[in-house]
């Protein structure tokens, strides 16, 4: 389904999307690609779902370049991959005779 971001609070990590069906859908940062922050008025696509608390947007994908990774909420339970660095290899000098 398509929709428009009604509001999204980056500090709280959630907001609402107005779906093309006229309903508002709760969106949590965990339903967004890692590091993406939604902006008010931004067009998105999502999978509508419903639970005991109401309508939710899942697998949200931003349709514009307005999405930002600035100030994205951090999931403290996830581990960042450790980057391995390669040690410089010293070349051996060869005596030419």
3D structure, described in words:
By secondary structure, this protein is mostly beta strands. It has a domain at 2-62: OB fold (Dihydrolipoamide Acetyltransferase, E2P), CATH 2.40.50. The protein is 0% helix and 38% strand. The chain has no helices and five strands. The protein has strands at residues 2-9, 14-19, 24-28, 43-51, 54-62. It has a five-stranded antiparallel β-sheet, with no helix packed on it. It is elongated and about 80 Å long. The N and C termini lie far apart (75 Å). The model is unreliable at 65-74 and 78-84 (pLDDT under 50).
Structure described in brief:
The chain has 97 residues and is mostly beta strands.
Topology overview:
Blueprint: E1 2-9, E2 14-19, E3 24-28, E4 43-51, E5 54-62
Antiparallel strand pairs: 1-2, 1-4, 2-3, 4-5
Number of helices: 0
N-to-C SSE string, H for helix and E for strand: EEEEE
Terminal-residue CA separation: 75 Å
Uncertain runs are 65-74, 78-84
Helical residues, percent: under 10%
Given the C-alpha coordinates, what overall shape results? elongated
Summary tags:
97 residues, elongated, 0% helix, OB fold (Dihydrolipoamide Acetyltransferase, E2P)
């Amino acid at each position: 389904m398509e929709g428009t971001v009604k509001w999204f609070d980056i500090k709280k990590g959630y907001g609402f999307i107005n779906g093309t069906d006229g309903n508002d859908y709760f969106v949590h940062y965990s339903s967004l690609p890692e590091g993406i922050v939604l902006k008010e008025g931004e067009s998105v696509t999502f999978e509508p779902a419903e639970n005991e608390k109401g309508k939710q947007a899942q697998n949200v994908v931003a349709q514009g370049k307005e999405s930002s990774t600035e100030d994205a909420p951090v999931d403290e339970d996830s581990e960042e991959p450790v980057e391995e660095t390669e040690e410089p290899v010293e070349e051996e000098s060869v005596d030419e005779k």
